[in-house]
Backbone:
């Protein structure tokens, strides 16, 4: 019995209708931007294995640091205890984050990093004796699949079975020159009940790689600041170079109060979440009243092995060669987007930093469930490329170590698909 057949007997896969699912591809090793299956076939991982793998697979430097940590300390309870990796990682990250970020709270994935941020904001107002329970978020947002994260994500087929159980959220359109003043008015009208505004800066990933301009987000944030509304920047996806700068918030003049991280935080090696905040938010929880404590934690909070992976990933991320690779990918993406943007089958192209999205003409509105998705997915898989279309939207989001030749191969197969499909 093959590994894939054994898998289907015992495993329930994410985002998968198991009744109609194809056999999963059994991957046995990775190297650089590529993965290899049990038959030796090579696949270029053009989506960084769900957007996490920024330095390539099985990176020897990260592997070395993780191995060293495993022989020293694999875990310790993080309530009442600490360890060197957690302290050093927080110190180093806070130095490169926006200057107002002063404290770090560890969790174990992106959804929980968002949950922590939401709870910080809601309890901040509660600790100050104010009743502010409404949250402002963008339509088509995605912040995770736990209940709080789902609640602040756009309503869709993914949330439909749970909609009646999710707390009420004020959803607004992405800001642009036509609606900015209207959005500001909505905030003025609701400010007394708004606990916070949560957003994915510049790019809504799971929503379809929807991109919007920093200028208008900056103005909206400035308005929130003037009206006393706390702001959460969800950088789980956009952090660590994806938008061409270290963090998407580096494109902005305004600063968020809270930031959320995961995915690229460990270079895709281990699960780890992080929520950072301002001194002002942290101080609202300092009290002789124990009921003002932030009662949140996870068994694997600040896991030492995950922290070691994150520190190694940060070393690599800050190397000059990584910055040059990000710039190289950005340049190549721009050139390819310009080359295909007028193709009859391309509705639109969108590009920010190392993220390139292409929306195909289908005759229907964009939909995650568009039948073109499976056709495209299998076409590229046969060609040895892992692309996971969001319905009729193909996106390329490669590890920074991907070679120019590998990118050219992906581009050529997309052009081929445009002629053949």
Residues:
């Amino acid at each position: 019995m093959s590994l894939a057949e054994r898998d289907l007997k015992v495993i329930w896969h994410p985002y998968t209708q198991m009744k109609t699912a194809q056999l999963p591809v059994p991957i046995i090793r990775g190297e650089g931007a590529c993965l290899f299956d049990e038959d030796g076939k090579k696949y270029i991982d053009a989506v960084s294995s769900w957007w996490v793998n920024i330095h390539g697979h099985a990176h020897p430097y990260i592997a070395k640091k993780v191995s060293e940590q495993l022989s020293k300390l694999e875990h310790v309870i993080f309530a009442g205890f600490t360890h060197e990796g957690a302290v050093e990682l927080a110190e180093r990250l806070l130095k490169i984050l926006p200057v107002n970020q002063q404290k770090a709270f560890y969790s174990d994935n992106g959804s929980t990093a968002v949950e922590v941020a939401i709870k910080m904001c809601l309890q901040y107002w509660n600790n100050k004796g104010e009743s502010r329970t409404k949250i402002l978020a963008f339509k088509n947002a995605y912040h995770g699949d736990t209940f709080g994260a789902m609640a602040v994500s756009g309503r869709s087929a993914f949330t439909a079975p749970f909609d009646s159980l999710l707390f009420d959220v004020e959803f607004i359109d992405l800001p642009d020159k036509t609606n900015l003043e209207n959005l500001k008015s909505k905030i003025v009208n609701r400010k007394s009940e708004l606990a916070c505004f949560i957003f994915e800066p510049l790019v809504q990933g799971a929503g379809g790689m929807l991109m919007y301009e920093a200028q208008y987000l900056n103005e909206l944030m400035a308005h929130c600041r003037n009206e006393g509304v706390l702001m959460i920047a969800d950088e789980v996806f956009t952090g660590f170079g994806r938008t061409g700068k270290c963090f998407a918030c580096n494109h902005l003049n305004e600063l968020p109060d809270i930031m959320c991280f995961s995915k690229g935080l460990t270079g895709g090696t281990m699960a780890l979440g992080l929520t950072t905040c301002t001194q002002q938010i942290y101080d609202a929880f300092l009290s002789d009243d124990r009921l003002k404590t932030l009662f949140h934690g996870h068994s694997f909070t600040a896991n030492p092995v995950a922290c070691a992976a994150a520190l190694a990933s940060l070393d690599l991320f800050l190397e000059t060669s990584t910055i040059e690779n990000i710039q190289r990918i950005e340049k190549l993406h721009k050139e390819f987007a310009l080359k295909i943007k007028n193709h009859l089958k391309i509705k639109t192209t969108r590009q920010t930093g190392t993220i390139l999205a292409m929306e195909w003409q289908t005759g229907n509105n964009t939909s995650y469930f568009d039948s073109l998705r499976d056709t495209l997915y299998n076409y590229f898989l046969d060609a040895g490329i892992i692309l996971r279309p969001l319905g009729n939207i193909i996106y390329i989001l490669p590890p920074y170590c991907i070679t120019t030749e590998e990118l050219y191969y992906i581009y050529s197969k997309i052009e081929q698909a445009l002629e053949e499909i």
Remarks:
- The two ends are 34 Å apart (CA to CA).
- The chain has two domains: 3-59+320-420, 64-317.
